Amino acid sequence: MCTSFFNLLSQDWFPKIFIDIGCNHPIKHNNSYFFEKFLGFRVVAVDALNSHRWEWENTRPNSDFVCTAVGDGAGTVDFEVAEGSGDDADMFSSVVGASNKSEHLVRNKIKVDVRTIDSILSERNINKIGIVSLDIEGYEFNALQGIDFSTTEIMLFVIENNSSGIMGGNAIRELLIAKGYVFYARIWGMDDVFIHQRMVKK
């Protein structure tokens, strides 16, 4: 499966653009670093916590860091910033009510801006994307509703889906299958991989 996956990414028709939503730290546990460094992808990195801006701008200056939460509309949203003894605690931060992963951590509630994925892409004149990684602690379904699939072409999604235990929930799968995607794989017991039907036909 891995060989087939990377063969697809190397094709000339595959857009070398990676939208990394819920990007957190630019290196540690990061989903787009490999693709930018070794495969030459252009990366748009999105995170609700502005505390990561300096790290991105200094460590990965070629990436475009956008500070915002992502949802199905524009405005502001209540957001819980997780804090703990380790450096990685804030990766469990989330929109209030979206996740219980941080319930054992200290949480500070703040207001953050929220935008649609479409608005971020439109601002950059992007309508063809190779990969979207979506890891926003239980708010993934809301974020997907902020995409107009009739005007935005995305080849591949990697989406955290652990809302219903180890096998995840079906809402995200049903939405993307209805939009023309194939449920390709389940990895690490928490992420779903979807590829567009166009890729299957290539």
The Cα radius of gyration reads 16 Å
Q: Helical region count?
A: 7
Can you summarize the main beta sheet? 7 strands, mixed
Which range best describes the helical content: under 10%, 10-25%, 25-40%, 40-55%, 55-70% or over 70%? 10-25%
Low-confidence stretches: none
Roughly what fraction of the amino acids lie in strands? 25-35%
By CATH, the architecture is named: 3-Layer(aba) Sandwich
Which term fits the overall shape? Answer: globular
What name goes with the CATH superfamily? Answer: Vaccinia Virus protein VP39
Strand order of the largest sheet: 3-2-1-8-9-11-10
CATH class value: Alpha Beta
Describe the structure.
With about 200 residues, this protein is of the alpha/beta class. It has one domain (about 1-70, about 115-200): 3-Layer(aba) Sandwich (Rossmann fold). Helix content is about 25%, strand content about 35%. It is built from seven helices and eleven strands. It has helices at about 1-10, 35-40, 55-60, 115-125, 140-145, 170-180, 195-200; strands at about 15-20, 40-45, 65, 70, 75-85, 95, 105-115, 130-135, 155-160, 180-185, 190-195. The strands form two sheets. The protein has a seven-stranded mixed sheet, sandwiched between helices. A four-stranded mixed sheet has the order 4-7-5-6. Strand 1, helix 2 and strand 2 (about 40-45) form a beta-alpha-beta unit. The longest helix is centred in the first third of the chain and has 8 residues, at about 1-10. It is globular and about 50 Å long. The two termini are about 15 Å apart. About 40% of the residues are buried. The mean pLDDT is about 90.
